[in-house]
Amino acid sequence: MAKPFILILTPLKNASRNLDKYFDLLEKIKYPKKRISIAFLESDSSDGTYENLQHRLPALKKTYRKATLWKKDFNFQIPEGQPRYWEPIQYERRSVLARSRNQLLSRALQDEEWVLWLDSDLLEYPAAIIDILLSKEKEILHPNCVLDYGGRSFDLNAWRDKGKLHMHDLRAEGDLVPLDSVGGTMLWVKADLHRDGLIFPAFPYGLENPRIRYDNLWKGELETEGFGILANDMGVTCWGMPNLEIRHLRE
What we know:
Layout: E1 6-12, H1 19-28, E2 36-42, H2 49-63, E3 66-71, H3 90-108, E4 114-118, E5 122-124, H4 129-135, E6 140-146, E7 159-160, E8 165-166, E9 177-179, E10 186-190, H5 191-195, H6 223-233, E11 238-248
Parallel strand pairs: 1-2, 1-4, 2-3, 6-11
Antiparallel strand pairs: 4-10, 5-11, 6-10, 7-8, 9-11
């Protein structure tokens, strides 16, 4: 039986310094390249990210089933001198990222059976990652993104129990654990769920859902966290893989 078609989606902003590592990891994935489509949406970069990807695109089109690139600016910039996790900008930053993901998804998804959301700033993940994720037979999966193997989770958007438990707290539960929320560093989604309306809320979502966090001043969840709550409302469980660790670049 032929392997399923996979769509890898990556939203990008000011990512030029990470692209060599990103494509090195992509090239090492042990899955037929002609069963993989890749797509990018670049927004608001000031470091030549879009031009860098344009330069790579012809070779990518020869290697993969499809390779596409779009540009969509949202006119959002992090104030100079502030980290991206600065609290006053989080609502707008996460809302823009959700819109970026949804724009990319709506443009790129065609006949693929699975979607792999992949951030541009990962340092290491298994070359067999697609086959590993396929083998679990779950509609939504999120590996444990860390800075150091065995350490605390870096992607804290993956949580349970109103944000009290993260993936590093759940290692002893086993290789598959239910989650209320997911992150987007690496997120595996059955494509039909997206087609059925599972997107990334760009506004606070889930006020009536008991799984949202009590201390969330937005009175709902945004972006990947909103995605997790929306999945729950659709009757779909998000699963975490606390013992499948992928490494993130240090910022």
